[in-house]
Design brief:
This protein has four helices and two strands, in the order ααββαα. It is mostly helical and about 130 residues long.
Length: about 130
C-alpha cells in the first residue's frame, strides 16, 4: 500500500510532461504520438497501481488506513499534515476514475487524432483525472 501516492502523482506527472512537450516540440505528428502514449500510459499505470493497492488492501484485512505524506507546516503545537486515506469507498472510486479514465484515453487517441488541440486535450484530461 506504499504505492498509493503514485495514483494521483502519475496523471499529474503526465500533465506536466505533455504541457512542456506542447511548448517545445514543433513536429505536430510526433507530438500527437507522444501525447497519446504519455496521456494514456500515465493513466493506465495509475489504474494498474490502483489495482495493486486494492489487492494489497484486501490482503491486509481491509482496514481503513491513513497514509502520511508530509507535514505541511508546523506552528507551535499545530502541525497540519497531508495524508491519503484508503477505505473501501475510496478504493472503489479510485478504481472507477482511473479505470474509466484509461478507457476514455484509449478511445480518444483515435477519436481526437484529426483535432488541432490533440496534445492539449490529453494534458487537460490527465489534469482532470489527477483532480
Amino acid at each position: 500500500m506504499d504505492l498509493l501516492w503514485l495514483v494521483p502523482t502519475l496523471p499529474l506527472a503526465g500533465f506536466f510532461i505533455l504541457f512542456v512537450a506542447g511548448l517545445f516540440v514543433s513536429d505536430k505528428r510526433q507530438l500527437k504520438w507522444f501525447s497519446g502514449l504519455v496521456g494514456a500510459g500515465s493513466i493506465g499505470l495509475a489504474a494498474a497501481v490502483a489495482l495493486l493497492v486494492g489487492m494489497d488492501y484486501y490482503a491486509a484485512g481491509a482496514e481503513p488506513t491513513p497514509y502520511f505524506l508530509w507535514t505541511w507546516m508546523e506552528v507551535g503545537g499545530f502541525a497540519p499534515s497531508i495524508r491519503l486515506y484508503l477505505d473501501g469507498l475510496s478504493l472503489v472510486m479510485t478504481g472507477v476514475i482511473t479505470g474509466v479514465g484509461f478507457l476514455i484515453h484509449l478511445y480518444a487517441t483515435g477519436y481526437m487524432w484529426d483535432e488541432e488541440g490533440y496534445s492539449r486535450f490529453f494534458a487537460y484530461m490527465n489534469l482532470f483525472v489527477f483532480a
